[in-house]
Structure prediction request, 746 residues.
Amino acid sequence: MKRTGAQIVWECLKREGVEVVYGYPGGANLPIYDAMIDYPIHHVLGRHEQGLTHMADGYARAGNRVGVAMATSGPGATNMVTGIATAMMDSSPIVCITGQVASKFIGYDAFQETDVTGITLPITKHNYLVTDVKEINRALREAFYIARTGRPGPVLVDITKDAQQASIDWTYDDRPIRLPGYRPDQRAAAPAVQQAAELIHAAKKPVILAGRGVFLSNAMEELRQFAEKAHCPVAVTLLGIGALPASHPLNLGMMGMHGEAWVNQAIQESDLILAFGMRFDDRVTGNLQTYAPHARKIHIDIDRSEINKNVRADVGIIGDLKETLQQLLPLVEAGDRSEWNDYINGMKGDSAVRDIQNLPDNGHLYAAHVINDLWRYTGGNALVVTDVGQHQMWTAQYYRHEQPNCLITSGGLGTMGFGLPAAIGAKMARPEKEVWAIVGDGGFQMTACELSTAAQEGVKVNVAIINNGFLGMVRQWQEFFYERRYVATPMRSPDFVKLAEANGLAGMRVTQRAEVESAIRTAQAMEGTVVVDFRVEQEDSVYPMVPTGAALNAMIRRPVANPIAETGQDL
Amino acid sequence: MQHILSVLVEDKPGVLNRVASLFRRRAFNIESLNVGHTDVPGVSRMTIVIDGDANLERVSAYLYKLVNVLDVDDLTAKPMVMRDLAMIKVSASSENRAEIMQMVEVFRARIIDVTNTSLIIEITGDEDKINGFVEVVRPLGIIEMVRTGAVAMSRGTDLAKSNGNGKYRGAVTLG
Prediction:
């Protein structure tokens, strides 16, 4: 049958099972948009291409499927860059389809021309420039395949306008994909698995470090079985939160820069580290020279370039985590490591005393209280999406996830502005879930325009703004490391309640802890997206904290008595 | 000390850019990079010489992440032959032409162009030999010079690839 390139795009998306596309039309992708009308795919018009790329990302992470974003050439495509880099760092499968000027204009600085494949080369898993209508089918099939297999990631397909407009006799090319240089199906080598089992037998103080790879390979059950059989505590990375239910006795919680003291101490004292689908980010290890000095390391990852990158592995296993754990499980003897587990649990008491949760609120509203209450009134079962900064760390600390894949956050790139649009995408992927976007006043304003997208789409997202009038995390660093010189961090924000209302949405303001519960309950009961402006303590800091370059257990601990809470006055 | 990598890639637009961009992005220094066709249609071969300080395990792991890279072979420690080709244009008059031709003879180079005032000499060999020759002809006055950078190949017929990736098999049936 006769098909234009634009129609072929939609034919291919349909066959990939795409139901939603986040996009923005423009001159160079108009043919694609014109053809859309005949296809039953829902299009979400974002307000900025960064936002719609985050939407596709949130959709992909929440729904465990490929998210699709579309933009026009030039500025449309360059606006996607932040979203693509975010997806790259957190291994999120998205396909970005951009329009490009007609092929005869490429290289002539045509209106809205930019070298998008060149720009996105280092931040995509792979990308394509398609100038021939006959290549669209193959490029899109490969793009989806590459995005979702192996270590997932973003793939960009740039299609020239003439390729979109040209017509050919077309039938769907469903021949097996031939990518001889791409081998995502890595299998763990049996001798390495055997070696790993031997190290585990010998270990008295092992710790599992679980990362996002647990979710990507759907290995939650295998992780639980393994941890229980080996009686081995599990620390999680920011993106691994929920890999094991928070209430599971072997779950220690989050490790790293803002991990609890007992978690980092356990890692430092361990004699064996089992790294499962995590990549030893510097926010996780602290100073590499002093990192887990007594521990042998077993590192399992699907991406061979992660093995021995930051931390040298005694046993490196390249393979799918789920399959590898299935191979490893029968080789591991059931063990009793009560002494080690009891020792770690013994350290928790010290931290609990210091926890801000145990301090009186004295009329002040603390972010920790807000997030703790959010956790309580959502039963720990909400799908939580965060932005980046202090609120993100507090969410990681105080929202105890019982379910897997329920925290979506920009970990690797740390992209402010991620929260709201990613929450919109996440809600569309899992409409049955209660979704909370927990954001700061700074990051929220980077993509606050997407409130009107939420309104137009009728998507229900509850937005909790942890509003402290500062770029809080930067302010905290200024407090700790720059002698409280608060340069460029105080921020005057608009009236968020009115901003919500201007978008036809509901807004609320909370200034007392006593009002938190009713605000949450009200937001839950309302139909559409709700914005709750939580006016929290301004100069509150995230504790504990490992300063950059310090050893993982050299933490700035919470003050035993919080001076703010004690005196009721700001410092 | 240098590392010599032989890299098989799919012959597609932008592949050279992907490889070069990878080295830049990961801060590995390329000393020379040579690319050309192989006997297999659709497959090109790069010989990349990199700084000895580079972590070769990382370089090759990142190369494998490129979808268009079929095979990476580290030739550094293997029995291999390595060649560089240079063309050197030197000033030459009727008086010293005979002297130059003698040197060319000694180094087993060749003269491939002659004018009244200059010669182009072609020389093939490993880096040291070419460097040596360049020093010998330098006093004559080098007008211009071009070098290909190294190309390298392992000795013998052992085609078993070291990486265990299994990609090479796919590569030879390509197209």
